[in-house]
Amino acid sequence: PKLVYDFAEGNKEMLELLGGKGANLAEMTNLGLPVPPGFTITAEACRAYLATGSVPPELADEIDHHVDALQQRMGKKLGQADDPLLVSVRSGAAVSMPGMMETVLNVGLNDDSVNGLAHQSGNPRFAWDAYRRLVQMFGKTVLDMDGDIFEDAIEAAKAAKGTRNDLDLDADDLKALVDTFKKAVHDATGREFPQDPRTQMDLAIEAVFRSWNADRAVLYRRQERIPTDLGTAVNICSMVFGNLGMDSGTGVAFTRDPATGQSGVYGDYLQNAQGEDVVAGIRNTVPLADLEQLDKTSYDDLMAIMAKLEGHYRDLCDIEFTVERGKLWMLQTRVGKRTAAAAFRIATSLVDEGVIDTDEALKRVKGAQLAQLMFPRFDADADKERITKAIGASPGAATGKVVFTSAGAVEAAEKGEKVILVRRETNPDDLHGMIAAQGILTSRGGKTSHAAVVARGMGKTCVCGAEELDVNVAQGLIKVNGTVIEAGQTISIDGTTGEVFKGEVPVVPSPVVQYFEGSLAPDAGDELVASVHRLITHADEVRRLGVRTNADTADDAARARRFGAAGIGLCRTEHMFLGERRESVERLILADNDAEREAALAELEPLQRDDFLELLAAMDGLPVTIRLIDPPLHEFLPSMEELAVKVALARERGQEPGHDAALLTAVERLHEENPMLGLRGVRLGLVIPGLFAMQVRAIASAAVELKRQGKDPRPEIMIPLVGAVQELHLARDEVEAVLAEVGVEWSIPIGTMIELPRAAVIADQIAEAADFFSFGTNDLTQTTWGFSRDDVEGAFFSRYLEKGIFAVSPFESIDREGVGALVRTGAERGRATKPDLKLGICGEHGGDPDSIQFFHEVGLDYVSCSPFRIPVARLEAGRSAL
Ligand code: PEP
Ligand code: MG
């Protein structure tokens, strides 16, 4: 295959091959925009390198060919002594991973050509600074040297000069630094810094390939659920310089505000600087609008290009650009990352502008984004002590204790503490800390700083550029306007307004939740709520999947109903056996004879009946799937260890342990090594006489009572953990007998959960005895993988995620190939027996956006999820249907 593409040969559809940066550089080149010439080495070449440990043999020739063409076009050569061609070597994967992988700039400089660059630019300081940067980046990135070696040398040079400012180092100082750096390279590696530009390029390309597997990149991919095997493309781009003087500069621009979605001029600009300086947030930038005063021609050009790009991509674009001595160059564009709120507002704005239709708008928002909009906000009316206001870079309301290091954040989070990571600026190595923290606060950098970009990508609250904060990491304190805040003290940050408060600020429901609750009208003037309303309404119109809720209480049922649930897909009745009712369950378990057992059941029945009365009333007119008791009974008894200690203590004191001793005997009798694979689900019902019957009597009599009151109760009875059709026949016979005995005159559906692999495989038989199926994907995942759902997350999942065995826990998002195949089989075989068999899913996956897509594809009728995920499920069900 072709491994290298000139920018003019690609386009934006070639994302997987050329990576995001390469594909969009190609697209801009072909749009006639000012892109510095260059070429892209494909991600396929990277994958080959990662697989074999060496670059594909044919790559060198292809690169030669493209380097020749580039040199011809530019009229100069790499390393040319009097006027060198310089290139950047940049990573660019199909999925954006800001700052996670490597870049080497100024490739092509060496001891000779640095003089040519000095002469050509008329600026020796600039040339030696460029060479200094090359050796430094090369040392760090390609040769894996410790970056501090270089930073320390720069500090030493400044100290010797008695200055703290980089800009005070002149050409001679920088020249001396280059010597120091080259010597450091030799000391660390035993080799000279390579003078041959092509060798520099080849080594830099390999380093970019390798950086795909750098720790922070691996961590980022895990966090963002990005597949581990994509690899990165490498872009070789002729250099343009934003640091040639005050008529040069570099910046980042958005065609709309990535925080709110509003249109306007958004971005940051930094005069006399290179791109890396802006993204690193090391120096504070000026607003993009100021460029109009600084350089009107470049500003006007940029505005025209931004309009063209947005029209072309039909979406918010973000852009990196450089001005070199008054000439504008485009270095990157892409459909830009945005906050959840901006995603909704941009989508509906584009509909109003006639750019896209409502289907397309719905495709452009995600369930996960809607979930973010449902997080609480700070209460505007609460008393609060504001200590500063800076840039709201990523929305949300976060409260936590101040920590100053990423390691500190991780440590605190492991102890279950909530923290705010406070830094001057963040860099890619802070990713661990950013993940662990509730929010991030920085004192430097704008909306496009590393902290801001990464936080927005993760949906994490971030306030940046809080210049009033004097962050002193060594002393562990922040000084701000006369207030001192120490590590460990609590602060609250508002990522929307940029405000920072001392102490904990109370939160209130978000406007989006108020809308779903029915307490805020869609046309009340909140534009975000209006957008959400339009898109969820459209999702409801187009979706085929129904959305029900998992709920055990009338309150949850009522909330879910307000949120749009079309019934209950799973009521776990065991939750009704907790609290004071444990004692009755205890008596049931301890019962020695039929009379005692019946007495215990008789105590429970009216309580259960009241539960069902409330639940069915709350869901009046809608189906309520009630699952008969599932967990092993000893879950309702005290722990064996505790009881054993109690009994032993009593005996030691010469007391008679009595009840406790009897309980201990029962607990020992019921003890199971693998309770999840033991006496639970339908097995319990078949083994303990009267247990299922009691529950069914409670359901039936509650329903009969509600009918009598003129209501419309619609219970459905569900039998858990069935593996053989014989089990279901037996349980069903018992249920039907009780329904008849209570005098139910209409038909109550009786169905089963499909949560064992065997059940999925023989679903055709099971369907004979079932009116409906509900896939219990929690147990189905547990039993298919042989993973204990209660143990594995802490035990080894993090290792598995690191090793890329899976990108996300299969308990969170359905494993399509394994567990998903069983769901598909179960659905197909069940419907082969009964074509109109109703099919639902009630495991945790019912509220997971990716999984919902899958359940739509396999033709289920509904998903059931917790009340707060109902809106997300509605939205995703709509998106699945498009
Ligand atoms: C399931 O197993 O997916 C399920 C919904 O039941 P539970 O989580 O109660 O075992
Ligand atoms: Mg289950």
From TrEMBL:
The catalytic site is made up of H450 (tele-phosphohistidine intermediate), C842 (proton donor)
Point out the gene that encodes the protein.
ppdK
EC assignment: 2.7.9.1
Q: For the Pyruvate phosphate dikinase AMP/ATP-binding domain, which residue ranges apply?
A: 52-284, 292-343
| Domain PEP-utilising enzyme mobile, first and last residues per copy | 417-498
Q: Which family does it belong to?
A: Belongs to the PEP-utilizing enzyme family.
Q: Which residues cross the membrane?
A: none
Q: Which reaction does it catalyse?
A: pyruvate + phosphate + ATP = phosphoenolpyruvate + AMP + diphosphate + H(+)
A family per Pfam: PEP-utilizers_C
Instruction: Give residue ranges for domain PEP-utilising enzyme C-terminal.
Output: 531-877
Instruction: Tell me which residues bind Mg(2+).
Output: E755, D779
User: Which protein, by its recorded name, is this?
Assistant: Pyruvate, phosphate dikinase
Keyword line? ATP-binding, Kinase, Magnesium, Metal-binding, Nucleotide-binding, Pyruvate, Transferase
Species annotation: Kribbella turkmenica
Q: Which residues bind substrate?
A: R572, R627, E755, G776, T777, N778, D779
Q: Which Gene3D superfamilies match?
A: 1.20.80.30, ATP-grasp fold, A domain, ATP-grasp fold, B domain, Phosphoenolpyruvate-binding domains, Phosphohistidine domain, Pyruvate Phosphate Dikinase, domain 2
Q: Which InterPro entries match?
A: ATP_grasp_subdomain_1, PEP-util_enz_mobile_dom, PEP_util_AS, PEP_util_C, Phosphohistidine_dom_sf, PPDK_AMP/ATP-bd, Pyruvate_phosphate_dikinase, Pyrv/PenolPyrv_kinase-like_dom
Q: Which cofactor does it need?
A: Mg(2+)
PROSITE patterns noted in UniProt: PEP_ENZYMES_PHOS_SITE
**What Gene Ontology terms describe what this protein does at the molecular function level?**
ATP binding; kinase activity; metal ion binding; pyruvate, phosphate dikinase activity
